[in-house]
Specification:
This protein folds into two domains: about 5-45 and about 105-300, Aldolase class I (TIM Barrel), CATH 3.20.20; about 50-105, Alpha-Beta Plaits, CATH 3.30.70. Helix content is about 35%, strand content about 20%. It is built from eleven helices and 13 strands. Strand 11 (about 220-225), helix 9 and strand 12 (about 250-255) form a beta-alpha-beta unit. Helix 3 packs parallel to helix 5. The longest helix is centred in the last third of the chain and has 14 residues, at about 235-245. The chain binds iron/sulfur cluster (2 copies).
Length: about 300
């Protein structure tokens, strides 16, 4: 039994959007990027952190007294957590009777996560599904992810790695060894804009993309399309051209911008950076797909 540990912030069973068939999706915590449109802001910090649900809080002050390092104060606006002082001990969460506080992320062993995956093995077999690990960024926890995938493989469970591609080459190689499918995001071909919008350049990402394509492991390219940030015809064409140069049979998925994660920012004392951005219209999405298809690529728009 291997007990390598990872930091996990969510495990979602019966998922149908994270690979073929019915899947269990494990979300690991920690990401080197900070994409402005990130729908999982709780995934960015690699360590467990307290989230606060303003609407559930009764302003009772119990958590203030429970905190051993005096990181919590009660303000006219609800509870304020000094995140520099907070040690993520969890005492405040235990003290709150109204479930206004929760810990986002916890250490889990490979064995613990593997047991969760095995619960749905029958569904995987019937539907052609399996286990997906997403993030956060999986390349930040390569030993944990690779060992989890190795265990799944031995058990006949299909493995899918969902990655931004931002990480060490060695990490990608390690995970590739036990991956049946890679979901690989490409956001911007202009490295300066990638730096501006995502918090890092795209050079390592493109290097890892090449590595994955050359490995022969099946890959799906996913393009989150964010109005005003990366949906220019020029960027979509550049992405398409890059993919075609690798292999025109690589499928492409457009992931339309949504605001599902916007409410989570406040729970972590973060500011949602794209407050004024509205969703793309059907015509705009269709136009993006047409550009991609004009390069001979097979493109789908995810819902
Ligand atoms: S204990 Fe819970 S309900 Fe009371 S102030 Fe703290 S967060 Fe709010
Ligand atoms: S997790 Fe611990 S240290 Fe952090 S605010 Fe709560 S009680 Fe204080």
């Amino acid at each position: 039994m291997d007990n390598s540990e990872g930091i996990v912030f969510n495990i979602q069973r019966y998922s149908i959007d994270d690979g073929p068939g019915v899947r269990t999706t494990v979300f690991v915590k920690g990401c080197p990027l900070t994409c402005l449109w990130c729908s999982n802001p709780e995934s960015q910090n690699p360590m467990p952190e307290v989230s606060y649900r303003y609407t559930s809080c009764k302003r009772c002050g119990t958590c203030v007294d429970a905190c051993p390092v005096h990181a919590i104060s009660l303000t006219h606006d609800g509870v304020h957590i000094d995140r520099k002082l907070c040690t993520s001990c969890g005492s405040c969460i235990e003290s709150c009777l109204y479930e206004a506080l929760a810990m986002s992320g916890k250490k889990m062993t490979v064995d613990e996560v593997f047991k969760v995956a095995c619960k749905d093995k029958d569904y995987f077999e019937v539907s052609g599904g399996g286990l997906t690990v997403s993030g956060g960024e999986i390349l930040a926890q390569p030993d944990f992810v690779a060992e989890l995938f190795r265990r799944c493989r031995d058990e006949g469970i299909h493995t899918c790695a969902d990655t931004s591609g931002c990480g060490e080459k060695a990490a990608m190689e390690k995970i590739l060894t036990y991956s049946d499918l890679i979901y690989f995001d490409i956001k911007h071909m202009d490295s300066d804009k990638h730096q501006l919008y995502c918090g890092g350049p795209n050079d390592r990402i493109l290097d890892n993309l090449k590595l994955v394509v050359n490995s022969g492991v099946p890959i799906v390219i996913r393009v989150p399309l964010i109005p005003g940030y990366n949906n220019s015809d020029e960027n979509i064409a550049h992405i398409s051209q890059t993919i075609v140069e690798f292999n025109k049979d690589i499928p492409v998925n457009i992931l339309p911008y949504h605001r599902y994660g916007a409410n989570k920012y406040r729970m972590l004392d973060m500011v949602y950076p794209l407050d004024n951005v509205v969703s793309l219209t059907e015509d705009e999405l269709k136009r993006a797909r047409q550009i991609i298809e004009s390069y001979g690529l097979n493109c789908e728009i995810s819902v």
